[in-house]
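Hey team,

Filing this mostly as a record. A colleague (T.K.) asked me to run one chain through the structure pipeline before their review meeting, and I want the input and output archived in the tracker in case anyone asks later how it was produced. No errors, nothing strange. Just documentation.

Input sequence:
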Amino acid sequence: MNKISVVSGKSSEDLAKKLSRKIKANLVKSEVKIFPDGESKITLDGNISKEKSIVVQSMYPPVDTNLIQALSLISKAKEISSEVIAIIPYMGYARQDTEFLPGEIVTMKVLGKLFKGAGASKIITVDIHSMIGLKHFTLKTKNVSAMPNLVKYFKKLRLKRPLVISPDQGGKDRAKEFADEFGSEYIALEKNRDRKTGKVQIKTKNTDKVAGRDLILVDDMISTGGSIIKATQFLKKQKCKKVYVACTHALLMNDAEKKIREIGVTNIVSANTIPGKTSVVDISDIIAKAIT
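Output structure:
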């Protein structure tokens, strides 16, 4: 029997398959039945290694369902394997890492206890929304970046005087990382978001570099697309050329992809942390390096 098994959750089948090939591991697939009340029944197909198992399960919507499936897979793997590494490419609840308003529950603290209790010895995430969240975990954690592989994709495109843009100041370091690897300039937009209403306003003044250039809007994730839409509308007024979107996690809820394309974005490019039409960038090699 192979010394390493990759246990594939239903939410990450393609990525798990690619990862198993990269590290030459035995692939264990899972079949899931969802009962009318929402319960998940999981059946594994394959032999789990006694030495090391790698569980791959992303926590995109339905977040709670994919979370319980991840914990169940880890628990089953731990019954057989000495070591279980959990690959959670998209870590749900990562935005709930701090008590922003009185009474808010820091759900990442809860997840830290759940993953450890299920039997994981290490968690690997990809471009987690905030590194603060992983500080609530008492087991080993590692966050890896999909940016180098996203950059490789964009290097193949013929862009006109490309400029990398972060839709907010919070993503400034990410945009810098992307721009340094890509070999271009970058700027970060300034925006204000009302925490209660969610309304966003862009107040950037330094836009003299935008006109006549192709832009790459870089973000870690796109949920409803509100920030990307606001940024694109603002940048289009500055007479830019084409606007591309590069992100790791393309959740694209509530017809977000359609809305983003309708306001003039040429293409949305994302990693395969979440499967979908835009997830054309494979990051299995990055995860493989993080395991060893």
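Quick notes for T.K.: The radius of gyration is 20 Å. The mean pLDDT is 94.
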